[in-house]
Amino acid sequence: PLDAIVSLFSFANSKTHDRSISPDTWKKFPQVWRGFVQQEIQIWAEFHDFWLKAAEDGVPVHIVRYEDTLLGTPARAKTLHDLMKFVLS
User: Average pLDDT in the 4-14 region?
Assistant: First the structure.
């Protein structure tokens, strides 16, 4: 989830989807970044716990790693193919 947390922090501070915050911003507010990461890690943990329990209870669940959906990654085609098979089944 690190890539997603970095992206969300950048969005929250730049208010745009197409720009990142400057390196100076990261350096000026390290405590804000640390607090943000701790909060988001907790949210991610609860999110994953919810779906892992749902899977244990018989709910169909398909896990996709964000990193495997990025352009240029060898796993991209297989990841998207497997996801579509899951959705359409």
Answer: 85
Phi/psi region, residue 63 (left: phi>0; alpha: psi -120 to 50; beta: rest), is: beta
Neighbours of 21 (CB within 10 A): 17
Distance CA 62, CA 73 (A): 19
pLDDT of 29 higher than 80: yes
Residue for token digits 């716990």?
49
Q: What is the mean pLDDT of the chain?
A: 89
As a three-state string, the secondary structure of 30-79 is: HHHHHHHHHHHHHHHHHHHHHHHHHHHCCCCCCCCCHHHHCCCCCCHHHH
- Return the ∠ at Cα 87 (arms to 83 and 88), rounded to 5°: 115
Quick one: tokens of 15? Answer: 């208010």
